[in-house]
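Practice problem: predict the structure.
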Amino acid sequence: MTGTTRILLVDDHAVVREGYRRLLAEVPGISVVGDAGSAAQAYERARSLRPDVVVMDIALPGISGIEATRRMLRDQPNLRILMFSMYDDAIYASRALEAGALGYLSKASAPEVLVQAIHAVSRGERYVSPDVAMNLARSATQPGKSGIEALTPREFEVLRLLVQGETVRSISEKLVLSEKTVANHQSAIREKLGARNSAQLARLASQLNLNVS
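Answer:
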């Protein structure tokens, strides 16, 4: 990719978006063409603005940045997405990369690392920050952690919403699924994770850092 790299910033905090916009405005060859505060906004602005790289947070209102990544890449397969998240957990990184994100960066990273990651992703190269890479490597030696790896992408998204207090009805609306389908996913999640009730599911999710919004 040559010329200026066009960036779409996606984060649910306006102050955070403005901070990164100002940071990137000082970098030659990078132009922030827009921002979004939710997955729905990100989807629409990616379609209208046609950025080269989307810098995407995971913790968004409604569906997560992981699900947004999956949907956006179905619509624009050549879009390059860099996940930039407070989560450095291997489970989030692996799910984001499986969804099609080309890079994953924790927000603990220095500003210059964000710039490096954007440049790498814009060239079509995978980029994972060192702290996240270490957690991924550690996780690879401990497969089957609480059965979480057995969840399908859809089940993982349903679980994330369940432990944030969403109802079956609200999840069905957010994911555009029938309530019966969501209920079936809920049953499958409990079986795979060995949780007999919602309290056990919430406890397990807390241990896995899944219920932080």
